Amino acid sequence: MKKPYISGMSVLLCMMLCIMPGLIEAQPVIPDAGELDWLILGPLAMPDQEEQWFDMKAFHLDYLKELGGETNARPLAGEQTAGTVWQRLEAPGMPIDFNRIFRSREVLNAVAYAYTEFESPVAQQMALKIGSDDGLKVWFNGVLLLTLAINRAMTPDQEALVLPVQAGKNS
């Protein structure tokens, strides 16, 4: 006779949780990317202005060599790199739109970087959706996860990745 009673209690508990979802609050494990502080660098013009963007030579240049290279860079706000200063964007929302940010600068076909760090209490996976106006590279925790040498217009969420978040600091 106890089995039906336990099953009845389980159903009652499930009904209570479904009816009153405010009793249990889910805590975000990873902060929203739009709420993080980001550092941006750019626009970085192609070294040879005669070059056509579709040649993709600038795409393959490592503009962060003085910071240990693109894979190892850990920039600081106000730090000068490749003749340009890293600027802080505080909780910019998403997407980070380089065309809007650098609108006042007359540079066509340039490279720009965005960098952030965050803490995670546990190792987990995180989805990243990203778009780009032409080429795109994504590093996460020092690993190059995506390289697209492509000529296209930007729309949000053109690419989707699963990022291997580690417990502790991630960048």
Task: Please explain how this structure is put together.
The protein is of the alpha+beta class and 171 residues long. The protein has two helices and eleven strands. Strand 8 and strand 9 form a beta hairpin. The N and C termini lie far apart (56 Å). The N terminus is likely disordered. The strands form five sheets. A three-stranded antiparallel β-sheet has the order 4-1-5, with no helix packed on it.
Index terms:
11 strands; 171 residues; two-stranded antiparallel sheet; 2 helices; 3-stranded antiparallel β-sheet; 13% helix; single chain; alpha+beta
Secondary structure blueprint with pairings:
Elements: H1 2-19, E1 37-45, E2 80-81, E3 84-85, E4 87-90, H2 98-101, E5 110-115, E6 118-120, E7 124-130, E8 136-140, E9 143-148, E10 159-165, E11 168-170
Mean pLDDT: 78
Element-by-element helix/strand order: HEEEEHEEEEEEE
Distance linking N and C termini: 56 Å
Report low-confidence residues grouped into runs of 5 or more. 3-21
What is the share of helical residues?
10-25%
